[in-house]
Amino acid sequence: MNPSISLLQRLPMAVLDRMAGVLALPLLLQATHRASVLGLLTGSVTLVGPRVPAHPRMARGLICLWWLRTRSNIDFGTEAEADAEYLRERSLRGDLSILARAIIARLYGAPQQGHDASITIQQIRLLNLRCDELLDAIAVTLRLRTPMRIAFVNPDCVNIASHDAAYRQCLTESDWVCADGIGMKIAGNLLGRPVRQNINGTDLFPRLCESLAQSGHRLFLLGGGEGIAEQAASWAEQRYPGLAIAGTQHGFFPESHNEAVIAEIRASRADVLLVAMGAPRQEKWLSAHFAETGAVLGAGVGGLFDYYSGRIPRAPQWLRDVGGEWLYRLYQEPRRLWQRYLVGNVVFLVRIFSERVLGNLRKEIR
Structure pTM? Predict the structure, then answer.
């Protein structure tokens, strides 16, 4: 082992915090007030750590996991849960990692107050809720048996909708359309329409399963390759005892089998139908057939089953904390995804800047 690393490991955490604070002083000077700098130097404040100390002798932290996640719009759960996660894994390496991520996360800006309940980006109306609020709304929908369709829209979806009129119509017809991904947060900031949270099927799925296990509503998984939906269902059943899986069906079936698939879903008495076929196919399928399935809630969830089946590993949490999950997907499948991300993201930003410029011109004309 490197002697310098061994020495660092033997130092008290308070000393390590002070060292990390000095190393990151330029970031601190930009991000905090002078009083916080003095507090760091005197030891009454630590650069990295919970904002609410876990015990009286623990210094208050200036930057924490929750600070990061609020800026990347993935602040699911509570600040207390994020603090507990930090304390379980606390280390010098972890603190330095948080500091490095904080430099990137600062670019996204601080979370803004006074969000509108709905916003429009590229003429797509978005439901601007937090994940927990969406789950509450889903619970009410299931209790009242009011049919609802959910769509998740990321920058690639916006690009597709710009030239696919049928897909755009599907989004217009969907009851709830949610902003998915760091690109939508950036777009909202540029347009002056802040997105409250990154609502995507992958993060929603475990929370939805937990809610369904408690309420007793039945879940059907449609999509993915052969055996993928079954493996995702198995993961969910093991993780959430009491969850009722109504059925599963892979998504690679010919159009001539639609009636049989619809009959299978209807016979399963599913309350919630998740369709993982990728955009725009999944939204078009739901638009054409959801009413026939008998389900109360239908949602297009992209590659969700691939993650929970274990076929494709998800980006590590540290990369998600800075909005870099798309980079991990590009790394995993560069040949398939390079155009979507390297070209598509640029096209998306051009569209957003154009919308911003046109919006400013309209204001000046008025």
Answer: 0.86
